[in-house]
Design goal:
By secondary structure, the protein is of the alpha/beta class. Helix content is 36%, strand content 22%. It starts with a helix and ends with a helix. The structure holds zinc ion.
Length: 457
C-alpha cells in the first residue's frame, strides 16, 4: 500500500465535528483510530498510545535522552459539509490527474488530516529505517478542534500534570504561500508565533411588548439595528503588534523598494504601515486591529408580532495585547446606549507570543529551508484564526502554527468550503518535512557568532 492509498482510506472516514455533541457520530472516530492502528503498525507497536477525553489520541515515542520533547499536534475531526455543493464527493477521496501531478479532493485533505496523516507517514518511515529520536516525540491528535477543543485541552492538562515542558509544540496554522506580504515575491513559510483571541458577546434589547399595528417610536429591533450599525462604524484602533512587526522586519530583505526600507524601520514607519495594512483588505486589516462582526440575530417569531427581545451575537477576534475587558469597554462606548445589554457569552484572550529566535525557531526554520529550498523565506506571523495550540501555551513559550504544505490562494479558500483539495506532490513533500524535523538536531546551540548572525537575520 502506498502513502497516498493510506491517506485516501483515512479521508473517506467522515469524522465530522458538530457543536452539539449529540450529533457527533462517535463510531466514525472509533473506525478512524482502528484504521490508524491497521495502517501504521510500527507506530502502534513502538509508540505508547493513550485515549484522552474519549476520542483524542496521545502517542509517546520515547527518545534516547531525557532532553525536552517535541509535541506535534493535528486534529482528527473535520468540519461539516452540510449545505455545500461539491464537484467531487467530500468523502470519496477522488483523485483528478495522474501521478505526482494529481490532486486529491476530500474534506480534511488539508484541514487537518493532511497534517495528521503526513506526521504518521513520517514516523512510520523513520521507524522502518531504524531511527530513534534524541528526545521524546509526542503526537497529540484532538477530536473536536473545529468545535470545542475539549480534546486538546485535556491532553495539554495531562502533559502539564506530568510535568512535561516541551522544547517545541507544532500545530496547524500557516502554510507556504505567495503574496502574503505586500512587495515580497518569494514564497514564504508563514509560521504562526501567536494567534488572536476569540470571544462572543451578546447584545440584548427588551421591549414591554405591544402590537405590530401600533409600534413604539424605537422598537427593540430598531434599537438593536442602531447598536449594530454604531459598532460597525466605530472600528477598533489600529496598531503594529510585535508578531506583525517581526513578520515585516524578517520579510524586509526580500521585499521590493520602497517597502524594503519601510519594513526594516517599523519604529518610524509604523503609522504609515498600519494605515496601509488596514486598507489593503480584510486579511491585512485583521493583522492590525481587533475585529468584531455580528453573526446570529433574532427578534420576533411572527410577522405580525413585536419582538419583546431582540438579540445579536458579536463575534470578536482580539489582537495581541487586547483583553476581553478592553473589548467590553469598546463595545459599550461604541454602542453608547444603556438600553442595549452587552454580555460576554465566552471567550479566550489572545495567545502569548512565541519567540522568532532561539533553538526551537532555528530548528523549525532550518527544516523549512532543508525541505523546501533556500528560496522559501520563513516568516513569523500572527495567525488570524484559533487553533488547538492555544491550550499548550502554558507548557512552553515555543508554540508554533505551521503546516508544511505549499498552497495556492484557491486551495486555501477551499478550507471549510466545497472542494477542499491538496496536490499529491505537495502532500508528499509535507511528509519529508516532518521526517526532517524529527531527525533535525534538537536545538543544539550554535557558536556565538553563528547565533548572532541567525538573530540578525
Ligand atoms: Zn484545522
Amino acid at each position: 500500500m502506498t502513502p497516498v492509498e493510506r491517506f485516501r482510506e483515512l479521508l473517506a472516514i467522515p469524522t465530522v465535528s458538530h457543536v452539539d455533541p449529540e450529533q457527533v457520530d462517535t463510531a466514525r472516530f472509533v473506525e478512524f483510530r482502528d484504521a490508524l492502528r491497521r495502517l501504521y503498525p510500527r507506530v502502534h507497536s513502538t509508540l505508547h498510545r493513550e485515549l484522552v477525553a474519549e476520542h483524542s489520541l496521545l502517542y509517546r515515542w520515547v527518545g534516547t535522552s531525557d532532553a525536552a520533547p517535541i509535541v506535534l499536534l493535528a486534529h482528527q475531526d473535520v468540519v461539516s459539509v452540510a449545505n455545500q455543493t461539491w464537484r467531487h464527493p467530500p468523502f470519496a477521496a477522488e483523485m483528478v490527474g495522474e501521478g505526482a501531478d494529481a490532486t486529491l479532493y476530500a474534506r480534511g485533505a488539508i484541514d487537518d488530516k493532511g497534517a495528521l496523516v503526513a506526521i504518521l507517514e513520517a514516523v512510520e518511515g523513520a521507524l522502518a529505517d531504524g531511527v530513534t529520536p534524541v528526545a521524546d516525540v509526542y503526537l497529540a491528535f484532538g477530536h473536536d478542534e473545529e468545535t470545542r477543543g475539549s480534546g486538546a485541552r485535556a491532553i495539554a492538562a495531562l502533559l502539564a500534570e506530568r510535568g512535561i515542558a516541551p522544547a517545541m509544540v507544532l500545530d496547524e496554522g500557516g502554510a507556504i504561500v505567495e503574496g502574503a506580504v505586500p512587495g515580497v515575491r518569494a514564497p514564504t513559510a508563514m509560521i504562526g508565533v501567536a494567534e488572536r483571541g476569540v470571544s462572543t458577546f451578546e447584545l440584548t434589547v427588551h421591549e414591554a411588548g405591544g402590537h405590530a399595528s401600533t409600534p413604539p417610536r424605537v422598537p427593540a429591533t430598531a434599537r438593536l439595528a442602531r447598536a449594530i450599525d454604531r459598532l460597525r462604524r466605530r472600528s477598533f484602533p489600529v496598531r503594529l503588534v510585535p508578531p506583525v512587526r517581526a513578520m515585516l522586519a524578517t520579510a524586509a530583505p526580500h521585499a521590493a523598494q520602497p517597502l524594503r526600507a519601510m519594513f526594516s524601520r517599523t519604529g518610524l514607519t509604523a503609522p504609515a504601515l498600519t494605515a496601509a495594512l488596514a486598507s489593503l483588505g480584510p486579511e491585512t486589516n485583521a493583522l492590525v486591529r481587533t475585529t468584531a462582526v455580528v453573526t446570529e440575530m433574532s427578534g420576533s417569531a411572527g410577522e405580525n408580532v413585536l419582538a419583546t427581545t431582540a438579540r445579536a451575537a458579536v463575534n470578536v477576534r482580539l489582537l495581541t495585547g487586547d483583553t476581553i475587558a478592553d473589548v467590553a469597554v469598546h463595545l459599550r462606548r461604541a454602542i453608547a446606549d444603556p438600553l442595549v445589554h452587552i454580555d460576554l457569552r465566552h471567550g479566550d484572550d489572545p495567545s502569548p507570543v512565541s519567540p522568532w529566535r532561539g533553538a526551537a525557531w532555528r530548528r523549525l526554520s532550518g527544516t523549512v529551508a532543508d525541505t523546501f529550498g533556500g528560496e522559501v523565506v520563513a516568516l513569523p506571523y500572527l495567525q488570524l484564526g484559533a487553533s488547538d495550540s492555544r491550550f499548550y501555551t502554558g507548557l512552553t513559550d515555543a508554540v508554533y502554527r505551521f503546516a508544511p504544505f505549499h498552497l495556492t490562494r484557491a486551495e486555501r479558500d477551499a478550507l471549510h468550503a466545497p472542494d477542499e483539495r491538496i496536490r499529491i506532490d505537495v502532500w508528499l513533500r509535507g511528509i519529508r518535512f516532518y521526517r526532517a524535523l524529527l531527525e533535525s538536531p534538537s536545538g543544539a546551540e550554535p557558536s556565538g557568532a553563528a547565533r548572532r548572525r541567525a538573530e540578525l537575520r
